[in-house]
Design a protein that fits this description.
heterodimer, A: 452 residues, seven-stranded mixed beta sheet, four-stranded antiparallel beta sheet, globular, B: 529 residues, alpha/beta, 9% strand
C-alpha cells in the first residue's frame, strides 16, 4: 500500500483530534446491514510494483504489436510516427497531473496550450473557431448533428454512406433518444460517392448533410456542390475528417463551405491505444460559436494588464445552464490535445506538407502494386493514404489468413458492415510513412497468396 | 506570417510600485512565454521526413492551394516552449489539490509505464481479435473488478468520461423502460447534484425536476416519495453526495423508486469514499458510472481524458451499449461486440439482449483501463478498503481542525465522507469565497472547489484524498486557518490575491464579452478593432 502515506500512529492521532474511537465510526451513516466487514470477496490482496508490472507485461505480450509487423490498418485510427519529445513532454507532472483549468492564474500552461490547439485546429479545418477538444471523432460528429439541429431548428440529418459506420452507429443510437432523424445508407464499392443522392435528398426539413472527407473507402471528392445545395435549403454541411494528416495536402472542408468540421485527431501525436483515449476535433464559423458544445479557451488580460487565458463562454455549459446546456459534457481530452499541439508544432506547415506528401506517395505506390495482383481491383479513383480494393474472395478470412503470415493487412469491410453482403469482398488499406519497402513487399506477397 | 525575430513578447510593462522591471518580462524562474504563433515559422520544422518521390497525385483535383498557417518549431525550441508553459501550471505532483468532488490524488508512474507497453499502446482497435487477446483480457479483468467491487451484474466499458457514463446509464434505463412498453418522461434530480446530471437527463430526452435537500444536507425523502409516480423514469442521485455526506436512506430511496416502477441512477463520482466498504448493488442502485481518474487514479491531464464505465444491475445489464461486458451465471465475464450480441443473447440472457447500441467508435478508453487495472492490482481488495478509510479520515480531520474558524454547515449532522464542506458565513462584509481561494494560491495551494454545491452559500468543498500525509494536511490547515481569520477580519489585501502567481486575477468578463478564441496576426487583429 505504497500510495498511502498515513502511518497507524498518524491515524490514531487524527482519530483523537476528530473525537472518534475508530475509523468505522466515521462510516456510521452507512447502515450496518450493508457495510462490509472484510475485503470484497473474489479479489486478490495488494501486490508489489514488480509483481503488477509482470502481470501486465504478460498481458501486453499476448498482442500483435503494430510496430512489430507489416501494418496497414486505418478506418478511423492511423499509425504514424510520433516524435519522442511528444510523449516526454506530456508526461511532465505539471501537465499530466493537473486538473481542468478552473483557476486560471495557476493554469496558464494548460490554457495557453489549449489556445494554441484551438488555433491550429481552426486553421487546419479552414474554420474561424475550434473548441478545446472532444472525447473523440465519433462523439464529436454526434454533437455536431445536435448543434445543427439547434441552429436550424430542424431534426433531419442526411448522412453520407461514406461516413465511418461506427460513427453512424453512435449517431443512430443517440438519435433514437433525442428525436433526431438520420437518413443513412450503405456505401457501394464504386469510385463514385453518393453526392448526387445527398443533394437530391435535401429539403426544407434538413438540418444538416453529414459527409466524411476522405470517406470510409478513402475517396476524396469536392464538397462544394453539397455545401451549396445544403445552404440553398437552409441546411448546414457537417464534414468529418478521420485522418487529419490528409489536410496537409488537400483542401480543407471549411474552404469548401462546411459549416461545422469535426474529426479525430489521433493521427497527430496520439498512439493507436486500441481505440482510446483519442481526441475529438470540433470547429465552426464564428456566428455559431455560442451553439458549440465543449470547452473554450479565450484570451484576456489580468489585473496588471498582462495577457492571459481563461475558460470562457461557459454560460453554454452544463455547470451553469444545467438542463438547458448545449451538451452534458464537462471535460475535454486535455492531455491528448496537448500531444496533438506539440506534434503539430514540431511538424509545422512544412513538416505536415512533407508528411502528407510521403503518405500519399507511398499509398499510390501500394495501390498500384496491389491492383496488379490478378483478381484484385482498385475501387478508388481518388484517395489520400487509404484506399479500398475488391478481392476475388471474402476479405474477412483473407485478413485472418494474412495474420498467419505475420501481416496486419487492412480492415475488411465485413468487419465494419457484418450484414452487408455486397461489401464482403472489400478491403481497406491504409499506408502511412511507417510502412517500409519491406513491409509493402510483405503485404503484396501475403495478399497474392491469400487471393489465389 | 513571419517569425518574431526576438523570440519573445513582453506582455506588459512592469508596474509602478517598485516591482523589478525586466527586459524579458520574466521574474527569475517565473518565465513568460510567447505563443507558438509568435515564435514559430511556416518554413520551420522539428521533424526530418524523407522526401516523397515525385509522381502524379491521385487527390481528385483537390490539392491544397493556399497556406494553412501552422508555424513550426525546431525540436529544442518545442521542448523549451512546452516545458516553460508547463511551469505555469499547478498539479498534484507539486502539492495538495483539494478540489472537492473532483478527487485529485497521486498518479503512480507504474500506471504510465504499463499504459505505454507496446501491447497496449500500439495496437489498432480493428485488429483481428486473435491478435489482441491480451488487450481484451485487460478489459475483462478490469470489468470483473468493477462488477465485484460494486456488487452489480454487468458493466458498459465504453463511455469516454463520467458525463458520458451518465448518459449511458440513462439510455440503459430508457431502453429497459421501452422494452416493457413504458413511456416515462421525468427524471428527478436532487438539487445537490452535479450540473452534468440535469444536462444528461435533458440530453437523453427527459424532463428534469429538482428534488430539494433537507436541512441535514441529504435528499428530502418525503419530498422524493411524494413526487414518485408512473411518469418518473429515474432518480439521479449522488452518493456520497456533493455535501460530502452519505445518504443513509439510500436503500429506502431505492425501494420507493422501484416500487413506483422507476430506476435508480447513482452518480459514482464519489465512489472513492466507499470503495471496499459498501457495494452500491446492495443499496438497490441500478446504474452507476465510475470516474476512473477519481477512484482509480488515472491522470486528469488538465481536463481529460476521462473514462466512465457504467456498472449495471441485473435488470439493466441486457440493455448496455456495445461493446460491453457481462458476467454469466458461471462467473465468467464476456466481452460482447455487435456480431456476438445475438448469439450471446440466446445463450445467456434468454434472448433478451436489447443493447441500446453503440456510444463510441471503438472500445472506450483502453489507455485508462490499463492504468486503472494497474492501480487496482497494486492496492488489492485490502488496499482499496484502506483507500476509502484514509480518504474519509483525512477529510474529517480537516473538518474538525477548521470548524472553529470556518462555518461548517453540516458538521452537526455527523462525520463527512471524503470531502468537507464549509461556507462563507462569518466572513467580513465584502469578503468572498473567491478572495479566500485566491489567497490560498499565494500560499502555494490549488484552491478547493468554490460555490458548489449550490445548496450552501459561498460553498468551499475540500477533498484531501487518501494520498496526503498528516504533515501536508497540518500545513494546509495552518494556511487555511490564517486566511480564514483574515477573511473574518475583513483584511483588504485578500482582494488583491493572488500576488505571486504567474498571473494576477484575470478579467473573465472581458473574455466572454469580446471572445478571442484563436490567435490573430497583429495586422488582422488591429484591422478588426
Amino acid at each position: 500500500m505504497r500510495y498511502l502515506p498515513l502511518s497507524d500512529a498518524d491515524r490514531g492521532e487524527m482519530l483523537r483530534v476528530i473525537g472518534a474511537s475508530s475509523v468505522d465510526e466515521l462510516f456510521r451513516d452507512v447502515p450496518e446491514e450493508v457495510r462490509l466487514s472484510g475485503p470484497v470477496e473474489g479479489l486478490p490482496m495488494h501486490a508489489s510494483e514488480m509483481a503488477v508490472e509482470r502481470h501486465m507485461a504478460a498481458r501486453s505480450r499476448k498482442n500483435m504489436v503494430a510496430g512489430d509487423v507489416p501494418f496497414f490498418l486505418g478506418c478511423g485510427a492511423y499509425k504514424h510516427h510520433i516524435p519522442a519529445s511528444v510523449d516526454h513532454l506530456i508526461q511532465r507532472g505539471e501537465y499530466l497531473t493537473s486538473y481542468t483549468p478552473y483557476q486560471p492564474e495557476i493554469a496558464q500552461g494548460t490554457l495557453q496550450m489549449l489556445f494554441e490547439f484551438q488555433t491550429q485546429v481552426a486553421r487546419l479545418y479552414g474554420c474561424d473557431v475550434a473548441n478545446a477538444s472532444m472525447y473523440d471523432g465519433s462523439t464529436a460528429m454526434w454533437e455536431a448533428i445536435g448543434m445543427a439541429a439547434r441552429i436550424t431548428r430542424r431534426k433531419r440529418s442526411i448522412v453520407s454512406s461514406g461516413v465511418h459506420p461506427h460513427y453512424v452507429s453512435v449517431a443512430t443510437t443517440m438519435a433514437k433518444f433525442t428525436g433526431d432523424f438520420l437518413d443513412t445508407s450503405l456505401p457501394e464499392l464504386t469510385a463514385e460517392t453518393d453526392a448526387e443522392r445527398l443533394i437530391a435528398a435535401i429539403d426544407d426539413s434538413t438540418s444538416a448533410v453529414v459527409v466524411q472527407y476522405p470517406d470510409i473507402l478513402g475517396r476524396v471528392t469536392d464538397l462544394t456542390p453539397i455545401a451549396e445545395a445544403a445552404h440553398a435549403a437552409g441546411a448546414l454541411l457537417i464534414a468529418v475528417v478521420t485522418e487529419p494528416v490528409a489536410l496537409g495536402l488537400i483542401r480543407s472542408p471549411g474552404e469548401m463551405g462546411a459549416d461545422i468540421v469535426v474529426g479525430e485527431g489521433q493521427s497527430i501525436g496520439v498512439g493507436l491505444q486500441f481505440g482510446g483515449p483519442y481526441v475529438g476535433l470540433f470547429a465552426t464559423r464564428d456566428k455559431y460559436v455560442r451553439q458549440m458544445p465543449g470547452r473554450l479557451t479565450g484570451e484576456t488580460v489580468d489585473a496588471e494588464g498582462k495577457r492571459g487565458f481563461v475558460l470562457t463562454l461557459s454560460t453554454r455549459e452544463q455547470h451553469i445552464r444545467r438542463e438547458k446546456a448545449t451538451s452534458n459534457i464537462c471535460t475535454n481530452s486535455g492531455l491528448c490535445a496537448l500531444a496533438f499541439t506539440i506534434h503539430m508544432s514540431l511538424l509545422g506547415e512544412k513538416g505536415l506538407r512533407q508528411l502528407a506528401s510521403l503518405n500519399h506517395a507511398r499509398a499510390c505506390d501500394v495501390a498500384e502494386r496491389l491492383a496488379a495482383i490478378p483478381g484484385v481491383e482498385l475501387v478508388n479513383d481518388s484517395f489520400f493514404n487509404e484506399f479500398t480494393i475488391k478481392l476475388p474472395v471474402e476479405a474477412r478470412p483473407a485478413v485472418h489468413a494474412m495474420v498467419e503470415k505475420g501481416v496486419l493487412g487492412g480492415v475488411s469491410l465485413g468487419r465494419l458492415y457484418p450484414n452487408a453482403a455486397a461489401l464482403q469482398n472489400g478491403l481497406v488499406i491504409a499506408v502511412t510513412e511507417t510502412a517500409t519497402d519491406e513491409d509493402i513487399a510483405a503485404l503484396e506477397a501475403a495478399l497474392k497468396e491469400v487471393v489465389r | 506570417m513571419t517569425a518574431n525575430p526576438a523570440g519573445w513578447r513582453p506582455t506588459a510593462p512592469a508596474n509602478e510600485e517598485g516591482e523589478a522591471r525586466t527586459v524579458t518580462g520574466n521574474r527569475a524562474l517565473m518565465l513568460e512565454e510567447a505563443l507558438l504563433f509568435e515564435i514559430g515559422g511556416l518554413d520551420q520544422t522539428g521533424v526530418d521526413i524523407v522526401e516523397a518521390p515525385q509522381r502524379p497525385t491521385r487527390l481528385g483535383g483537390l490539392e491544397r492551394n493556399r497556406e494553412i498557417g501552422l508555424p513550426g518549431l525546431s525540436e529544442p525550441e518545442a521542448v523549451r516552449h512546452y516545458t516553460r508553459l508547463s511551469r505555469q501550471n499547478y498539479a498534484i505532483d507539486l502539492g495538495l489539490f483539494p478540489l472537492g468532488s473532483c478527487t485529485m490524488k497521486h498518479n503512480p508512474r507504474l500506471n504510465e509505464k504499463v499504459a505505454r507497453m507496446p501491447g497496449f499502446a500500439d495496437v489498432h482497435p480493428l485488429q483481428p481479435r486473435e491478435t489482441v487477446q491480451g488487450a481484451l483480457e485487460v478489459i475483462n479483468e478490469l470489468a470483473f473488478w468493477l462488477i465485484d467491487l460494486t456488487g452489480m451484474h454487468g458493466v458498459a466499458m465504453s463511455p469516454k468520461a463520467g458525463a458520458h457514463g451518465e448518459l449511458c446509464g440513462l439510455l440503459c434505463i430508457r431502453a429497459a423502460l421501452e422494452a416493457r412498453g413504458d413511456k416515462r418522461e421525468v427524471v428527478l434530480v436532487p438539487e445537490s447534484a452535479h450540473g452534468t446530471n440535469p444536462a444528461t437527463a435533458a440530453f437523453a430526452g427527459y424532463r428534469v425536476e429538482n428534488i430539494p435537500a433537507n436541512s441535514a444536507g441529504r435528499v428530502d425523502l418525503d419530498a422524493l416519495k411524494a413526487r414518485l409516480g408512473p411518469d418518473v423514469a429515474a432518480v439521479m442521485i449522488t452518493n456520497p453526495n456533493t455535501c460530502g455526506l452519505f445518504e443513509p436512506d439510500m436503500k429506502a430511496i431505492s425501494d420507493a423508486v422501484h416500487a413506483a416502477g422507476g430506476f435508480v441512477y447513482c452518480d459514482g463520482a464519489n465512489f472513492n469514499a466507499i470503495v471496499g466498504k459498501v457495494r452500491p448493488g446492495d443499496l438497490g442502485i441500478d446504474a452507476m458510472h465510475i470516474n476512473l481518474h477519481k477512484t482509480f487514479s488515472t491522470p486528469h491531464g488538465g481536463g481529460g481524458p476521462g473514462s466512465g464505465p457504467v456498472v449495471l444491475s441485473e435488470a439493466l445489464a441486457p440493455f448496455g451499449p456495445l461493446p460491453y461486458t457481462a458476467r454469466t451465471a458461471d462467473g465468467v465475464v464476456h466481452l460482447i461486440e455487435e456480431e456476438q450480441a445475438d448469439e450471446f443473447s440466446q445463450t445467456h440472457f434468454d434472448g433478451k439482449v436489447q443493447s441500446f447500441g453503440r456510444m463510441v467508435a471503438f472500445h472506450g478508453q483502453m489507455g485508462m483501463f490499463t492504468r486503472a487495472l494497474t492501480y487496482i492490482l497494486s492496492h488489492g481488495a485490502d488496499g482499496l478498503k484502506q483507500v476509502a478509510e484514509d480518504a474519509v479520515l483525512n477529510a474529517n480531520y480537516i473538518l474538525r481542525s477548521l470548524e472553529d474558524v470556518l462555518d461548517a454547515p453540516f458538521a452537526a449532522s455527523g462525520p463527512c465522507m471524503h470531502e468537507a464542506i464549509f461556507s462563507d458565513k462569518g466572513f467580513a462584509e465584502g469578503v468572498s469565497t473567491l478572495d479566500l481561494a485566491k489567497a490560498l494560491i499565494d500560499e502555494g495551494y490549488h484552491p478547493m472547489t468554490m460555490y458548489f454545491p449550490l445548496v450552501v452559500h459561498g460553498a468551499m468543498l475540500v477533498e484531501p484524498t487518501e494520498t496526503e500525509s498528516k504533515a501536508t494536511l497540518d500545513q494546509f490547515i495552518a494556511a487555511l486557518r490564517s486566511i480564514a481569520e483574515r477573511a473574518r477580519a475583513g483584511d483588504p489585501t485578500l482582494k488583491a490575491a493572488p500576488i505571486y502567481a504567474p498571473r494576477r486575477r484575470l478579467d473573465e468578463t472581458l473574455a466572454a464579452r469580446k471572445p478571442v478564441l484563436t490567435y490573430q496576426e497583429p495586422s488582422q487583429a488591429e484591422a478588426a478593432e
